[in-house]
Amino acid sequence: MAKVHISELVLRDGHQSLIATRMRTEDMLPICGKLDQAGFWSLEAWGGATFDACVRFLKEDPWERLQKLRRALPNTRINMLLRGQNLLGYRHYADDVVRAFVQKAADNGVDVFRVFDAMNDTRNMRVSIEAVKKSGKHAQGAISYTVSPVHDIPYFVAMARTLAEMGVDSIAIKDMAGLLTPYVAHDLVKAIKQAVNLPVNTHSHATAGLSAMVHLKSVEAGADIIDCCNSAFSESASHATTESLVAALQGSGYDTGLSLPLLQEIAAYFREVRKKYWQFEMDSHFVDTRILTSQVPGGMISNLVNQLKEQGALNRLDDVMHEIPRVREDLGYPPLVTPTSQIVGTQAVLNVLTGGRYKSVTNEVKNYLLGRYGAAPGQVNEEVRKLAVGNQEVITCRPADLIGDELDKLRGEAETLVKSDEDVLTYAMFPDLGRTFLQERSAGSLTPEPLLPPESREAMASPAVYAPSEFNVTLHGETYHIRIKGTGQAGESERPFYVHVDGVAEEVLVEALDEIEVTPAAGGSPRKTAAKSAGGGNKQRPRPTHAGCVTTAMPGTIVDVKVKVGDKVKAGDGVLVIEAMKMENEVQAAVGGTVVAIHVAKGEAVTPDQVLVEIQPE
């Protein structure tokens, strides 16, 4: 019998970490037979960002994925990552929704539920754990590992004891940022094993290059299960390599009992699959030890880079990276994991770009400071709290205690769209996104985002085939290096251009809307002038011209318009809500006066250079 068990992550955290969760179900199913033969303790295949990615990008029903995987893996436990009271969304749900979701996940094939809370507030894990136990499945209580003045081994041991009292079947040490070091891992595992009579599972990202050593020292300290990922999707921001750990432990007192040749067959399959998703590859494939000092997870850094690029502020990345630890300290040192990583990161971006710390505060930070995500691990900066929420009452109860049953309400809202209880839960997780998905499914128009064809990669990699054009483009004060590596056929209505933007492979579809004519310029040199298109030309967006022009500091999507033309507003009143980096940010009026124009609508994408609402100052 194996002395140490392995939980394989290739179907969830591996591709989530390296190709933005884009692997499709059709590429998972053919290899499931071999995965099922391998003898893993569990195969992580659902939860985390997979639900969101299925609905948002892949246009797959996540419940159907789970059902198909269950049929294809009859002998292997399917493991999922569950965010406690947040489930798979970004807010707390009522207890009836949590219980329904867990039961349906169990019915459809989940065997092991890894339950965590971003705040490590075990009150937010209780109902999920109870629901898992009621369903007869394995409840794994997860500790979100982080480093701060308040997070030490006694803190984590106390949490493990609380989880054991709640009835969990095992304890996971979830090192989502790769901050664990080998000897700390050894001491932490040993202390938890001494405190609770439960199996311990270690999970540590390879970002800083330490995860294999972390697992080895954890095993020596008594860890029963280690999380690893097949070599086709391992290392870097992912995890230690399964085959390597199997080889390292082979013949020792910790032998996993897994077949290395079989694991290598699986790796060969996934290496070919990965080639299909080349456009989603991370830019870097090297060890990044900066995480050990910044404590900012790799996935969080990539989100920040994309966000800053969108607003022409990539040159402020260092400022944001310095601001993140300050915001985290102000908020009482929450672990940086979904959703608190987005809460801290988005606020840090706003602090840097708006010209003043907490000049603009996201709704999520306000809710955090009001206790609506749970108890902060450390002391919150009271000056920041007062600045953000004034004298509003801070709750001390479990946040979900203030949420009444909502499953029937959600079922009623989605009644015309849903065919099953699973559909209701899809809508519950992401109402706007879920509604669109269900509508498109009903209309038979679900279309996944395109995968760039192999020839476009070849075009970008083969300057001998295409004569490249190379230039810089300056937009919103930020300069981008553009290199054209190939194009589609001239004369097509939509012509693809294969380009590198700051080294990142992109496909750009260019549709000609204007006719270009060449006329002599003064002095005899040629010049180009654009004739108006048949539609009368492109609509010009209004630009800020006075203090009554309401703008946003960050690009995003309008989720709510809170005023109408003719409304009277005061300076500081909320007029819009924008979603950016998966967080909602209330946009406030800078001056008091009368709303005279609204230039945007719900669902519209907006940028910092456009006017959203116009107010006639008093």
Can you walk through the features of this model?
With 618 residues, the protein is of the alpha/beta class. It has 22 helices and 22 strands. The strands form five sheets. It has an eight-stranded parallel beta barrel, surrounded by six helices. The chain has a four-stranded antiparallel sheet with strand order 9-10-11-12.
Primary descriptors:
single chain; 618 residues; alpha/beta; eight-stranded parallel barrel; four-stranded antiparallel beta sheet; 22 helices; 22 strands; 36% helix; globular
Question: How many β-strands, per DSSP?
Answer: 22
What structural category do the secondary elements indicate? alpha/beta
Number of contiguous helices:
22
N→C terminal distance: 79 Å
Spatial strand arrangement across the major sheet = 1-2-3-4-5-6-7-8
Largest sheet: 8 strands, parallel, barrel
Q: Enumerate the spans where pLDDT stays under 50 for 5 or more consecutive residues.
A: 463-468, 514-539
Query: What is the rounded Rg?
Result: 26 Å
Please state roughly what percent of the residues sit in beta strands, choosing from under 5%, 5-15%, 15-25%, 25-35%, 35-45% or over 45%. Answer: 15-25%
Overall shape: it is globular
Helix content estimate: 25-40%
Summarize the structure.
The chain is 36% helix and 19% strand.
List strands and helices in order, with pairings.
Blueprint: E1 5-8, H1 10-18, H2 25-28, H3 32-37, E2 42-47, H4 50-58, H5 62-72, E3 78-82, H6 95-108, E4 112-115, H7 126-135, E5 138-144, H8 153-165, E6 170-175, H9 182-195, E7 200-204, H10 211-221, E8 225-228, H11 242-249, H12 260-275, H13 291-294, H14 298-310, H15 317-330, H16 340-353, H17 363-369, H18 382-389, H19 407-413, H20 421-429, H21 431-443, H22 454-461, E9 469-475, E10 478-487, E11 494-501, E12 504-511, E13 516-520, E14 526-530, E15 549-550, E16 556-561, E17 568-569, E18 574-580, E19 583-588, E20 593-598, E21 605-606, E22 613-617
Parallel strand pairs: 1-2, 1-8, 2-3, 3-4, 4-5, 5-6, 6-7, 7-8
Antiparallel strand pairs: 9-10, 10-11, 11-12, 13-14, 15-22, 16-18, 16-21, 17-20, 18-19, 20-22
Helix pairs in contact: 6-7, 6-20, 8-9, 9-10, 15-16, 20-21
